[in-house]
Amino acid sequence: MKQITISHIKIDVVLKDIKNIHLGVYPPEGRVRIAAPLKMNEEAIRLFAISKLGWIKKNRQKYEGQERISPREYKQRESHYFRGKRYLLRITETEAPPKVVLKNKAYIDLYVRPGSSTEKRHEIMTEWYRAELKKQIPAIIEKWEKILNVKVNAWQVKQMKTKWGSCNIEKKRIWINLELAKKPHHCLEYIIVHEMIHFLERHHKDKFLYYLDTYLSNWKKLRTELNKLPASHADWNY
């Protein structure tokens, strides 16, 4: 991966077998990435970046001052998020199969075997998040299949580094970022709708924005809310 610097901003450059140049600014630190056609030279890429400098700065500002979540240690009264709300973790050691239980809209109770490691506690919590997120998704897809008149053939939850969601248009599949289990339900819905609209329009062009404006008129507000929510400590790479 190459890197150029424009106005003290480092930009990662990836040459790919594509027709058009693509620019993105990614959480949590506002990293900038350009994907350019293989035949495009560095000077042309640099001129493109300069022309988009205002847009880059504007989008990087979204992540400035965003609350950061430090690495979780899975200890008593540690803060954890679920569906956009903050909970305190309570840990109970017991000789029984591990489980996670929500209590009184204030606590996440984590039951683990005595002496369980931080890694094991992380694994248990991650699988709980995965299971809870999977409970939310089918109803959202079913609702929007009828509204958009599209069909989702398959969906999957996975940990993603730079995207909240992605899709395979030809196979009508979508992938949802596991981190969305920690975000409000309406933010999850926004991402699913976003990916489903790609079945109608591949690129983020006027037609795609038209569909978003038509079917989810508050999508800009939802996107802003999602970007302002506490970000994971993870160092998101490309």
How would you describe what is shown here?
The chain has two domains: 2-63, no CATH class; 79-228, Zincin-like. 34% of the residues lie in helices and 26% in strands. It contains six helices and eleven strands. The longest helix is centred in the middle third of the chain and has 31 residues, at 118-148. It is an alpha/beta fold and 238 residues long. The termini are close together. The protein has a four-stranded mixed β-sheet, with helices on one face.
Give the helices and strands, then pairings.
Layout lengths: L1 E5 L2 E8 L5 E5 L4 E7 L4 H10 L1 H8 L18 E4 L2 E9 L5 E5 L3 E6 L5 H31 L5 E5 L6 E4 L4 E5 L7 H13 L8 H10 L3 H10 L10
Which regions contain 5 or more consecutive residues with pLDDT less than 50?
233-238
By DSSP (H or I, 4+ residues per run), the number of helices equals 6
In CATH terms, the superfamily of the largest domain is Metalloproteases ("zincins"), catalytic domain
CATH class descriptor of the largest domain: Alpha Beta
